[in-house]
Amino acid sequence: MFKPKATDYQSKELISEFRDVPHFSKQEIYDFYCRKEPELNDGTLSWRIHYLKQRGIIQSIGRGIYTISVKPHYSPDISLRLIRLSRILNKVWSDINYCAWSTEWLNSFTRHQLQSFFTVLEIEKELMEDVFECLFYEYNLRVYMKPDKDIMDRYVAFENAILVMPLISRSPDQIISYKKQKVYVPTLEKILVDSFSDEKTHYAIQGELSYMFEHAIETYNINFTRLLSYSRRRGKEEQVKQFLKHELGDLLNGVLK
């Protein structure tokens, strides 16, 4: 946990004030400081919140909603398979936009462990066919492009295959480096939304969604503004909101507007 310095704007007191609550608002931070600084203005408050975020004392989980920084950022282990795939993509297309991950990562969040896995490779729509043909014909990889349910049931999960899927614009991703090789992978918010939204691809964990979301939220820092923004681009914002309110309403009280 972060150990604040004495000069970090009453950081020790602020941590003590909010450590036992799941989240708190900008207004609550204002009220906290106003006990000793009744003349505190909004500009000073905004700068102070920025300072606390930069120092890792608080984290933003939504618009005007914060939490004490005790939860880690989700950073999955990268397999040699993903590293090799990334190298191929960067070798053939130097400026390609992509995002790749393995469904094996889902086992960190589910009660019943998946026994077979596949790689999801999201690519700009106009390059999907070129990427598919390159991986299939030139590198002899088990690869499918936007497979239907029948293909998913018959082949994909049993072959440790690669699924080439369209990359949604402004998908939240992160970079993980391995020996100077950059691998673009999804954030946890994207993994959660994709698992919820694409029932055909992620059919194996549909019965685990409530547990999966709860475990992810309790274990890692989740930015709900990012999560809902991406849900909106997938056309699933209201469905995701209703799911979260129904399944995790007590845990997220005050976060979802």
From TrEMBL:
Higher taxonomy: Bacteria, Pseudomonadati, Bacteroidota, Cytophagia, Cytophagales
Pfam families per the UniProt record, alphabetical: DUF6577 (PF20217)
Protein known as: Transcriptional regulator
